């Protein structure tokens, strides 16, 4: 029932819209997963990977309030259960169904929370969830950069998207816990850092380095920095909306903080606030320690990759570097519970961050789109084989109470769920008392 480290990969399921909503970029379709899903799941066994970041396509599954097409989810999750693969279920990845519109819709949190609960009831053996993937990136690309979905570029649009996305995530966690009280939430979020290019850029970089924490501050019920509090209120968040997040802080006890890191996650900032990619200056270990010092939660490296280039060893070398960073994080006392190469197969059009539909292959997978293993796939398989027995022997006594799908009905699991249900009831009582006290202070 307990695991000390999770080696994972994922099936890319991004679904943002571009061209003012007229074009949807569905990565499962473009990468052939709808056709080859059985083959894809078989590849996990070839790699000896037991944990998969995976989720049904939201826009094809969620047809309207209380209306679903579970046909593809029933097939795929049935096969994952048969194979005893542990899914980290990714319910919303960068887009929503057409009938919801986009992340400016204030009804999105309530609608999505209901979907999350109904999914949990249909698949009660699922324990690990990422309700909404990379909340900060989703809000930034959709409503600050103007690239996806609503394609807006303003502080007000960004804060509106962010508060709706994080509220949906929080409400989804609450609803899933009603069904599965021992659910664990692996919040995959981009870990960023902004470097000042010159002395005049110090202040803009400081602001961006505060802004990078907004999604997780709200998600974990942590009071934001004073400058960010003013930014949120000036950009349309109300005091009541802000206190909604503070009053849900007990949910953090059910969370693992997933940190995603790519070569583009560090930025050089100019004096006017513009930024460009800086490469891996600090690296995953230093930036992850910054996030860990802020939130004090167990950590998982939930996404990384690099395109295979002309030498053929670029991705292999990046895998080695990321794994060295994971070991460095672990050896400095940060409780890190997993590592993920994302994704299982190559992707499409990520060279333009899905802003254009060029149908160009992004060669970042453990396998190419013909399902032939890449050098990084072979190296990852060897890495898992070499380290899977070593890490438990060197454990710092942290275990994650993860249940394999086929063990869900065992008595020990049911007793654990009953105990977690009691704990959750106490947490809700404490939250209600905090809310009453907060109202009194007003």
UniProtKB/TrEMBL annotation:
<dbReference type="InterPro" id="IPR017853">
    <property type="entry name" value="GH"/>
</dbReference>
<feature type="compositionally biased region" description="Basic and acidic residues">
    <location>
        <begin position="422"/>
        <end position="431"/>
    </location>
</feature>
<keyword id="KW-0378">Hydrolase</keyword>
<dbReference type="InterPro" id="IPR001360">
    <property type="entry name" value="Glyco_hydro_1"/>
</dbReference>
<feature type="region of interest" description="Disordered">
    <location>
        <begin position="421"/>
        <end position="442"/>
    </location>
</feature>
<dbReference type="GO" id="GO:0004553">
    <property type="term" value="F:hydrolase activity, hydrolyzing O-glycosyl compounds"/>
</dbReference>
<protein>
    <submittedName>
        <fullName>Glycosyl hydrolase family 1</fullName>
    </submittedName>
</protein>
<dbReference type="Pfam" id="PF00232">
    <property type="entry name" value="Glyco_hydro_1"/>
</dbReference>
<dbReference type="InterPro" id="IPR051923">
    <property type="entry name" value="Glycosyl_Hydrolase_39"/>
</dbReference>
<dbReference type="GO" id="GO:0005975">
    <property type="term" value="P:carbohydrate metabolic process"/>
</dbReference>
